[in-house]
Amino acid sequence: MCYNFSMAKNITFNQPVAELIKKRVSCRSFDGRGLESKMLEALEKFPAGLELPFNSRLRFGIIDREKVKAESMFSTGSYGMIKGVRFYLSALVQKNAPRPWEDIGFALEATVLYATALDLGSCWIGGIFDRKHFGRALGMGADERLPAVVAVGRPDVKRSLRERLVRWSDKGNLRKGPAGLFFAGDWQAPLLYEGLPQWAPVLECVRLAPSASNKQPWRIVFRDEYFHFFLDRDRAYSALMPKADLQRIDMGIAICHFQLAAAEAGLKGEWSENEPQVLGTPGHFEYIISYAIR
Q: How far apart are CA 125 and CA 104, in angstroms?
């Protein structure tokens, strides 16, 4: 399978990308109010204008919980742990699409950052939600699937006890350090930020990316002027979440952060499939994509 990889056109926000990435947190307590129609229209149109790494044909929509509820299609979302949310961003994809997961992660995460720039809160939901009823609300076809949604709205002033407990159990405030994620040449040598100072802010934006259960499954090895992205697959976790490949969606989120931060810093490059032969690559690592420095 061939892809026409390219560095997508620059995506601009009203704030620096690095600031938006640091500002964004998983919000599980919303104020329950609606959003203006112009804002909803902007949120729905934004991802449709993106150039995606794997050129998937996605269809975007917004689910209004009030409409779903009125049609007896109410879903509590992810374990009922989200309070006061009314709207959900969504991406539908053809079931036979070859590489949709990374593109869904890329597109919805870019929209999450766009929402953050509008002072909205958001929370990814990929594990447990009512795909059947949410899909019906979107007019999902028999040949489409709904891998994930993003709750979006105005954050509540005060986090609920439930949200604090969920963040504690998910270790939502913790991240692996750079030495566990980024490598130089092989898997034994950590890629130190001071070794590539111009790329350090980009890699830090990747490190801060959200991921399912905060697993941070991306691993990047830098060699021969390429950043090679691998997925550190947790097979047991994948078996628990059969409806969508959440870890590949996480890879799309990491790719989004990398690309946006690089573009904003004026660093040039392009995506390609160029799998390296790295001695000692663990058997559960899956090659995803490479980024060549120009």
A: 13
Same domain as 54, residue 123:
yes
Q: Is residue 6 part of a domain?
A: no
The pLDDT score that the predictor gives to residue 8 is 52
Domain harbouring 121, CATH code: 3.40.109.10
Of 162, 177, 203, the position where a domain reaches its end is 162
- Amino acid at the residue 95: K
Do 96 and 186 share a domain, yes or no?
no
For residue 89, the cross-strand partners are 62, 150
Domain extent for 35: 17-162
Amino acid at site 146? L
Q: Are residues 216 and 145 in the same domain?
A: no
- Indicate whether 110 belongs to any domain: yes
DSSP state of 129: S
**Rounded-to-integer distance, Cα 17 and Cα 261, Å:** 6
Question: Is 3 within a domain?
Answer: no
Helices 37-48, 100-117: crossing angle, 10 deg rounding: 140
Sole residue written with tokens 């997508």: 8
Query: Any bridge partners for residue 276, and if so which?
Result: none
Residues 6+ apart with CB under 8 A from 248: 101, 102, 105, 231, 288
Q: Which amino acid is at 280?
A: G
The confidence score (pLDDT) of residue 78 equals 47
**Tens of pLDDT, residues 166-214:** 555 555 568 899 999 999 999 999 999 999 999 999 999 999 999 998 9
Flag whether 283 is in a domain.
yes
Query: Model's pTM, two decimal places?
Result: 0.91
Kindly list the distances between the CA atom of residue 221 and the CA atoms of 41, 218, 227, 252, 259, in Å, as whole numbers in the listed order: 39, 10, 6, 17, 16
State the DSSP H helix or E strand holding residue 272, giving kind and residue range, or none if neither.
Answer: strand 269-272
| Type of residue at 105 | G
82 with 180, same domain?
A: no
- Integer Cα distance of 59 and 75 in angstroms: 21
